[in-house]
Amino acid sequence: MLLEAIAEIARRDVTLAPGDPHAEARNTHWLDAPSVERAILTVSEVVRAFHATVAALRERVDRPAIFYVWHDDRAGQLRCGITSRRPADLPFGGEYRLTGDLASIVAGYLLGDPKAAVPAELDLTVDDPAPLDDPPLPVWTHAL
């Protein structure tokens, strides 16, 4: 189901609205999988799914854009988005660091404990500031 959810992102509408972060927030996707699925998926399978999604989006998106992926450890989810912003100006409320290592982000998610996540009914958005002691969030980006 996770691999299908990643592939589905390439078929969804993309809203690019420079200067309007709320409009572009529609391009943010929350991905989750049950523990059993996490246990059988490999990091390389999930990484390949993201790369295939990027390739499909490049065919559809007709303006400069950035696809980005991060692991929201507090929510226990993989998340990704598409924005017209530069990689150094992504819509996060806390510190983040760019990384070329998508595999480590995916591994953190697959190996994480889904039971330790904050309940889904709590609204954790990218605008929420990160606690002061959290290290910068690793974020993988790819130009479309």
Describe this structure in a few short sentences.
With 144 residues, the chain is of the alpha+beta class.
Report on this structure:
With 144 residues, the chain is an alpha+beta fold. The protein has one domain (2-119, 135-143). It is built from 5 helices and 5 strands. The chain has helices at 2-9, 21-24, 35-40, 43-60, 102-111, and strands spanning 29-31, 66-72, 77-83, 96-99, 137-143. It has a 5-stranded mixed sheet, covered by helices on one side. The radius of gyration is 14 Å and the shape is globular.
Topology:
Layout: H1 2-9, H2 21-24, E1 29-31, H3 35-40, H4 43-60, E2 66-72, E3 77-83, E4 96-99, H5 102-111, E5 137-143
Parallel strand pairs: 4-5
Antiparallel strand pairs: 1-3, 2-3, 2-5
Helix pairs in contact: 1-4, 4-5
- What structural category arises from helix and sheet content? alpha+beta
What share of the residues does DSSP label as strand, in percent?
Answer: 15-25%
Total domain modules: 1
- Count of DSSP-assigned helices: 5
Strands of the biggest beta sheet: in what spatial order? 1-3-2-5-4
Number of beta-strand segments: 5
The largest sheet, given as strand count, sense and whether it forms a barrel, is:
5 strands, mixed
List keywords for this structure.
alpha+beta; five-stranded mixed sheet; 19% strand; single chain; 5 helices; 144 residues; globular
